[in-house]
Design goal:
two-stranded antiparallel sheet
Length: about 210
Amino acid sequence: MAVSKSVLEEFTKGLWSENPVIKALLGLCPTLAVTNSALNGLSMGLATTFVLISSSTIVSIIKRVVPAQVRIPTFIVIIAGFVTVADIFLKAQFPPISKSLGPYVPLIVVNCLILGRSEIFASKHSVGMSIIDALGMGVGFSGTLVVLGSIREILGSGSLFNFKFLAESLFTPWVVMVLPAGAFLTLGFLIGMINFISSRKGSKGRAQP
């Protein structure tokens, strides 16, 4: 029971208490750049999650044989290898998505979230726990990008996952939402809302006897 609880805690921390975007403010470059649509947000989130899980697994496996002096360069090479796999896969199987995401897929290699989890968690824990941690962080990251992309796409284009459901005669798109300024506004609103909810929960917890 204790083991199951520990696994659940490691997974869920990335969804809320240690959400990489909302709480830790990591990976903001792709978060702000590609979330002009829900599909782009989901695609970037899945690509990042693949690299995060794969690199964390390898780092955890080889952590005892990598000299401390070359630890970080080794992690970066591992991450770059999986980023290359993700980039080639998207170009081969989903050319429109790859073109839409542009250079931000190769730039996953410098995402602080991935290197940070490799250094802070995967290099110090078992393979199983490293996978759970990476999966939780990946789902939290992907979920945040999808929420941001959905809000911006609905308000900026009147569609969701490229499905048009708001007629232009009934709804005037907010052009700002598909521009970089819309990303900052939406992310700021989302962070403020999450912090407000967290503070309310904390206040209720302290008020209980």
